[in-house]
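Backbone Fold Data
Goal — fold tokens
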Amino acid sequence: MESAALVSDAERAIASGDLRRAVELLTGAAAARPEDPSLWLKVASLHRATGSPQAALDALHRGLALTPLDFTMLLMKASLLQKLEHPDAGQAWGHALAQKPGGPLPPQIDAVIAEGERHRAAWVDAREKKLKAATAPAEEMAADDERKRIERFRNNVI
């Protein structure tokens, strides 16, 4: 079946509430047109809606391989990693937020961005505490000039 027909059938499946069938159809469409990142985003969205976060991430990775700076895909990836309590979630939020377009965004995106900013800030704080704990013994034994270099390094890393 042609990709456009698969997409049309998937849209009808979505309208009728058959999300699992829509996932199958859109996955087929994406396989037929693997260079189309919008199809991979749709597949990821449906996997997320059907409670399959890992499958959603897999589809996002396919889309991000084509458009690595896509804000929407990066937001969804960060959100999924957070939901999965993945240790890279904070960093993923940072990557997504760095691609935030200028100008007004839809209100539902504003809420996601606010959540991402909170999560990223907590991740940065935790990372800073780990770094301070790891460098504390060296700082205690360091001479004054060495302590200044350590502090400069820490400020540049974080």
User: Anything to note?
Assistant: The CA atoms of residues 44 and 60 lie 6 Å apart.
